């Protein structure tokens, strides 16, 4: 079994910063992809940022230059540093990890429980 544990959400004023963390644990053979999605009320879930096992990153246009995704391979942990936060960044943020449980097993997606980020004065 694989578990993803997220932390770091909360309430912050516009212009402030938060750092999200997501740690994957369990019988993991390899991790291919780690990413952060968000879903605001009444909106579809969207990709915020992603990082591959090789270190390539991808960002939504709305967060590029403000958010930074990184990972610690030894800890199977992905981080999202969020700076210059705006009210429109308010959403539930979900961690997504694509991994293999065994060498010849297919890639599988796992999701964190979600953490609320609220940007408001």
SSE topology:
Layout: E1 2-7, E2 10-12, E3 18-26, E4 30-39, E5 46-52, E6 57-59, E7 67-72, E8 77-82, E9 91-100, E10 108-111, E11 115-119
Parallel strand pairs: 2-11
Antiparallel strand pairs: 1-3, 3-8, 4-5, 4-9, 5-6, 7-8, 9-10, 9-11
Would you kindly provide a written description of the structure presented here, covering whatever features stand out?
With 121 residues, this protein is mostly beta strands. It contains no helices and eleven strands. A hairpin with a 7-residue loop joins strand 9 and strand 10.
Kindly provide the radius of gyration, computed on alpha-carbon positions and rounded to a whole number of angstroms: 14 Å
Topology order in helix (H) and strand (E) letters: EEEEEEEEEEE
Mean pLDDT across residues: 96
Count the strands?
11
Number of helices: 0
> What does the overall shape look like?
elongated
Strand content range: over 45%
Residue share in helices? under 10%
Major sheet: size, sense and barrel closure?
7 strands, mixed
Uncertain parts: none
List keywords for this structure.
121 residues; mainly beta; 4-stranded antiparallel β-sheet; 11 strands; 0% helix; elongated
Offer a concise description of the structure.
By secondary structure, the chain is mainly β.
